[in-house]
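Quick question about two entries, pasted in order.
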Amino acid sequence: MGTNKEQDRWPIGKTKNGSAYRNNLLALAHSTMNNRQTLALLKQQFWTSFGRNMAPVTSADGLKINWINYKTSVKNLQFSMQAGSAAASISIELTHKDADRQVLLYNRLLQVKNVLRHALQEEWQWALQVVDEHGKMISGVDTSLEGVSIYKQDHWPRIISFLKRQAICFEDLHDGC
């Protein structure tokens, strides 16, 4: 009596035409899609919650601030907040395409390093011309909160507190410039 090598490799029971194997794959694909949708929904809910938490905080002029898409009013200077599965971070990024101009802007930022340290209440990490996750050359300064996940709702208070404190300090500094 011969053995079916395909069934030996995928021990899902003996079925005609491997339909159980296809059904298992479909169930796995459906589960993966549902998992992705769940993670995307959690991420959306986190940023909505963060936005609501920050809504009462206005600029020095009393204007409403879009914290998630914060506008610095300085060309090639971006304020960015990230939260993922292992950490949350906040950064000030210099994105000028010309490498020499980016170095010049970075050196200007370095001139106010002590002011930044005092305003932001901690030491941030400085980086000159590094490649970001999109393959783009950037320079800047950032800080992160390790060991937290946007996908765990019980971590949200820590993440929101961290981002909120840093964002408000940055806004106060930005308004003073």
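Here is the second entry:
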Amino acid sequence: MSTHRQTIIATTSQARVPYRSASAALPYSAPVGDARVALHFVGWAALALIADLGSKQWAISALTDRTMVLSDWFSLMLVFNTGAAGGVSLGPQTWLINVVTTLATVALVASVVLPLARVDGRAALAMGLIAGGASGNLASLIGESRGVPDFLAQRVGESVLVYNVADIALWAGAAVLVPVTLGLVRAVRSERRVAARVRATA
């Protein structure tokens, strides 16, 4: 029994070394302690939230009666989104669905950030941006009767996409989450290979 335990610990340690060494070569990717993860997560979330709410307040005060054209494809114009993502209406319960969905998203993100960051430290950045962006739009849903302020207008082909800083934080967080997810998949596969070798030698 003792011999098997030593074999499992040694084999697992050896199997993890290549993965951690590879991730350590990437910026901000090495696994970090729980306290630092929590600090990074809260910090990025707070930064995204403050930037979003501050920029929305500026847009409401500066763009209510005018549009600022900055280029042929980008301008600043204030619109209030009363629908779901992309302005899609979900009927009379749209507001409630948005609030419940956003609260669930923030709760889910907060619950998985520590386990993910033990595999890849970039999870704190990804989840912090997602939580901050979601919280910014949630605050607007609750505090602004006219809807969520969107003011960054970008022409995409024949259409115009209008979004806000919270949306940028959400997109950026999702982008950072892609390599984190791939790293998690590699870690799970590595653990399975280790378990298979242990079973084969038992």
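Reply: The beta strands are 68-69, 74-81, 148-156, 159-163. Confidence is low (pLDDT under 50) at residues 1-28. Hope that helps.
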